[in-house]
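$ run holo --ligand "alpha-D-glucose-1-phosphate-6-vanadate" --emit tokens
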Amino acid sequence: FKVTLVSTSPIDGQKPGTSGLRKKVKVFKQPNYLENFVQATFNALTPEKVKGATLVVSGDGRYYSKDAVQIIIKMAAANGVRRVWVGKNTLMSTPAVSAVIRERSGADGSKATGAFILTASHNPGGPTEDFGIKYNMENGGPAPESITDKIYENTKTIKEYPIAEDLPNVDVSAIGITSFEGPEGKFDVEVFDSADDYVKLMKSIFDFESIRKLLSSPKFTFCYDALHGVAGAYAHRIFVEELGAQESALLNCVPKEDFGGGHPDPNLTYAKELVARMGLGKSDTGGEPPEFGAAADGDADRNMILGKRFFVTPSDSVAIIAANAIEAIPYFSSGLKGVARSMPTSAALDVVAKSLNLKFFEVPTGWKFFGNLMDAGMCSVCGEESFGTGSDHIREKDGIWAVLAWMSILAHKNKDSIDGDTKLVTVEDIVRQHWATYGRHYYTRYDYENVDAGKAKELMEHLVKLQSSIPEVNKIVKGIRSDVANVSSADEFEYKDPVDGSISKHQGIRYLFEDGSRLVFRLSGTGSEGATIRLYIEQYEKDASKIGRESQEALSPLVDIALKLSKMEEFTGRSAPTVIT
Ligand code: VG1
Ligand code: CO
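-- output --
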């Protein structure tokens, strides 16, 4: 192939957010839009690192992925990349990409040093919906802010990019290596099925035999909903072939370019079919719900965990996994190096860390901050309230890993009851037992999607301004509800990375109450239009007689305060949030 230099000019708005660049497909399809961003990334990595490299290019298979993969292959060839690894049909979950970077070796011993992941995660897909792209580094984790800042700077000055225009499109449906000859030598594209690498890794972490035994018991029933995302490409292999689940346990496990028209976000609002099956919907499907249910998002890094007629909050989920990991999961049998959560995630994990005497870290939202801790051997298990849970087996959150972690805990707790006449220890039993031991963190998140960006900014400025006088805040709070604790402090969360000392500012506005309750306000960094305001509300209850309340009811005084303190309706014109989780 030949290399052509194409002239281009900067395009506005290519700043990567919490997890890459996410825009409407029609924005990505503008001339040079994708190319500018990809070249800005190559330039940020520096030409020396790009030349001769092996890169992974794949994603959740959403609409426009097939075109994008071919463009990136041609640009990689022209930039001197030696090899591109592509998942069959461009499919590779975000956790599988991380695993492939860390674990896979090519036939000649080659190792990947980075990846372009093509996904907008939980955002809908299709010609009128979202596409996205992010870059992951040599450790398998998202590029740190120092790199994403450089990428953004580069998008503002870009003048040209090289591309191998005459390189034929590679058939991404056929497994195998295609080789080309370029001006600087050989260039290979290898198509493979990443499920092999991913299954191998999962088997090295969990005791598949004990999970298989659990799944074979008539007492234990299971349902998994991939919401037509890329998790479907792994679910059959793992749950049915390896662990012996019934075919009928799999819902929406065929990956689709538009996620079947749905919103591939595993929560009580969007995972409607699963929610109905689990007996949690407005109209249940009838019949006895399964004992255990789970769902994934588009790129399969998120998970939702459900019991029969029972919802497990993601903040509780990570705390429960941490509390049981050493006993239930072979990978952790020698202990946990530490645990971490994102700032808005509830403090349920903090209580476990304290009780088990574990190192504990609170980081800003987004997975990139956990990676440094893990690389330094300081963290084993971590999670976010946004349905993200994971461990140091890779450097991304991992939806299927979380399901296997829960299955391991269930298998462990039911070791003796699985064959005999004793009752199954259910998901709900495990959670209630956890609350009885550690106390319960009532928790909810309100999302106001696609509000006017200017108004959202004003609301945040208003909340920061209020923070200058805590007595004034308390006067307002007490005027709204007299039955809540005092606000003891308020700030904007700032994080100093304990490994590299880098500082991240403006990571969310916090109001902290004397009894441990919290209100947190943030603007989303993953939307593609307008602004999304996230409001996180949390209250800690240690009194065992008060841990069984309905969470929206328990939190209603704090919700009232949050909405009035922030003047939510006044600024946004919204009387109710778009989604409550
Ligand atoms: C959201 C979540 C955050 C998560 C991020 C990426 O970010 O709140 O916890 O890490 O999505 O997840 P934001 O900035 O919109 O709040 V994913 O599954 O979209 O890669
Ligand atoms: Co995701």
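-- notes --
The two ends are 51 Å apart (CA to CA).
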